[in-house]
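In the lab's daily routine, each protein ends up as an entry in a very long ledger. A line of letters takes care of the sequence, but it says nothing directly about the fold. The fold becomes a row of whole numbers, each drawn from a learned catalogue of backbone shapes. The protein below has been through that process, and both of its lines are reproduced in full:
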Amino acid sequence: MKRILLSCLLLLAAPAFADAKQDLHKLLDEIWQFQLEEHPVMATRYGLTEHNHELEDLSPATLKRINSANREFLSRLNNIKIAELDRVDQISHQVQAYYLKNEVDAYEFGRHMLPFTSESGFFSALAFLPNTHQFSTEQDYQQYLSRLSKFPRYFEQQIYWLKQGIEKGMTQPKVIMNGLPETVENFYNANATQSTFYRPFKTFGKDIDDAAIARLQKQAKAVIEAKVFPAYKRFHDFLVEEYIPNAKDDIAAYSWPNGEAYYQNRTEHFTTTDMSVDAIHQLGLKEVARIRAEMQDVIKSVGFEGSFKEFVHFLRTDPQFYAKSEKELMHYAAYLSKRIDGKLPKLFSYLPRTPYGVEPVPASIAAKYTTGRYISPSNKKEPGYYWVNTYKLDKRPLYSLPALTLHEAVPGHHLQIALAMELEGLPKVRTDGYISAFGEGWGLYSEYLGKEVDFYETPYDDFGRLSYEMWRAARLVVDTGMHSKGWSRQQSIDFMLENTALSELNIISEIDRYISWPAQALSYKIGELTIKRLRAKAETTLKQKFDVRAFHKAVLEHGPVPLSVLEQNIDIYIKEALN
């Protein structure tokens, strides 16, 4: 009788589960199609050519309409009962809700009035267009030229929002814009044929004849000179004459309209937790003290007789720790990348198919750019790229490069992002998104993994790793300090100088990045500590059954997720491993 009753209950429940699943997948697809429609460059990345001639519309009416749509999507998503979904769909539901909430929050706090940071923005993102487009037919080139011709309108819309920011007190601080006009100038102060945007017209496929090539090259030169360069020049002049003189003098997020709430909101978004700003600040101080003790152990191991400050000065000034040429630095980065490739099977049971390359940061943006970065594939035919900054070689220590390589290439960003992109049977929101606490937490955890496979060859390399970990711990202190506790820019620079082996140039670039991108810097340490805590939990519970390759699979196999979802996934992995 009990068996019959149970069967009846299951039959009654099945339609509800089926309806919830169907409603979710229909809504996820609707949201994805809406995003492709509203973001034409994003659509181009996914091989959709219908809007290849367009740039995003940033008019007030359009942004208001998009926000209304996002609010409606979020409401509909919340009406789907998550308990009636299987585990895979529950994760999709939570991930989509995370992204939608961020879109709504960002619009309502006015983030669109801050379209650039100290190191990059809309103006530099456009330089990726030649990589985003596919160039096979003459129509492909014509659509690309049509998109370039939209630059003046697009830049004017950005300038409109920057002017709104001046009126409302929502501007970037003056101090982070040193060198920004010169960076913008690099995009127009050149011959058109030497421009980044002309690059697709230097090589053509065999299906385009000589007459078409000559015609396209003439058109490209004309469009770049008449549309692209004037747009950048207009933006440059606006920055110099209007924006920078009217930008705010202080650095704290709390001085923006509703700034205290905005910073707490950004903190919750970037950490995917409900941690308070004070709790994060205190955690940072605790981590700084712990890592400092480990750094002292390394100093003792190399027999250095002197203070921590003197040892760091030695590292910052001794020529043995610096490349003598850009080629030497890039060769070392490539060597490290290949060396860690061979150690990955010890840590992972499966690896991505997508390869990655090692390239220098483009010279046009290198002066104010961070030390290194991972650039995701712009389309399915492209590799990922590990970028290394070769600007001012005497500020790029070789002892930091092993940790940087692990973070930006493998087993860090490239491995995690490429594996996510290659996941099958999941909605795009799961495979192609990026959640900072997960991705940056994984990147920092990857630096630690180098210890487990003997990747750090010298004590100085290990000190470089610790310095990078200290860098991320110090971020918790200085980011919260500047944006909520009244810390000055110089106070934050001094704190980093006293506790890390980063060069002063790197530290200044990083501090300006934290000022202009509030709370993003918090994601690294919070994510890494969460992954380490979950690993310790698995090791303690599973004992001899613990397999690091299986643990890493459990972390990565669902794509990027909020940390609360990651914890649920690891609990499921532990339970299944026990059984």
About this structure: Strands lie at 356-360, 372-375, 384-388. Residues 263-530 form one domain. The chain is about 65% helix and 0% strand.
